[in-house]
Amino acid sequence: MRSMAEWGDQLFVGALKVALPAMTALLVVNLAFGAVSRAAPALNMFAIGLPVTLIFGLVVLFFGLPSMQSGFVELMKSSFQFMQALTGAGLGA
Fold first, then answer.
1. Is the distance from CB of 60 to CB of 21 less than 8 angstroms?
2. Cα dihedral angle (70, 54, 28, 37), rounded to 10 degrees?
C-alpha cells in the first residue's frame, strides 16, 4: 500500500510539472484582463476575455509541447515500471 501511495505522489508531482507552465501563462493573462477591466470599466471583458484566453492558451500549449513531452514521457516510464513491479510481469523472462 505504501508503494501505491508513493506512486500516486509521484504522478501528482509529474502532472504538476507538465501542466504548470500553461497554468501560469493563463493566470498572467487573467491578471492582465483584471487590470484592464479595472482601468476601463466600460469595456465588456467577458466578451473579449474568453476568446483571447482560449487563443493564448492554445498558443502557449503549442509552443510548450516540446518541454511538456519530456516530462510526460518520464511520467509514463515510471508508471509502466511501477505497474510491472506491482504485477511481477517480466520477472521470469
1. yes
2. 180
User: What does the pLDDT look like over 39-77, one tens digit per residue?
Assistant: 888 878 778 888 888 898 889 888 888 878 887 888 888
Handedness of CA 9, 59, 49, 35 (dihedral sign): positive
Measured CA distances, 36 to 30, 41, 44, 55 (Å): 10, 8, 10, 18
Residue 93 in this model has a pLDDT that exceeds 70: no
Look at the pTM and tell me if it is higher than 0.90: no
* Confidence bin at 91 (pLDDT 50/70/90): low
Q: Which residues, 6+ apart, have CB-to-CB distance to 67 below 8 Å?
A: 21
| Greatest extent of the chain over all pairs of C-alpha atoms, in Å | 71
